[in-house]
Amino acid sequence: MASELIIAQLGHDLQAKKSFVTFLWSDDPGKRLGREMPYGTSIEDAEAAARKAIAAFVSEMNESVIKPVGT
User: How many domains are contained in the chain?
Assistant: First the structure.
């Protein structure tokens, strides 16, 4: 079964010209994900912009070396 995510917050930093979205999982509100999106993203465009931002994040993670703190 697919997870249902709720757009819990969409904010715009006017000075830095950045926008951010926060998702909550409907079945586990403690589980959340926040991503930067193109500045001025509207609520209507938030889903598509967030999917693009998350895909870029996943690609970056897959290409990264992850090390514990202090190594």
Answer: 1
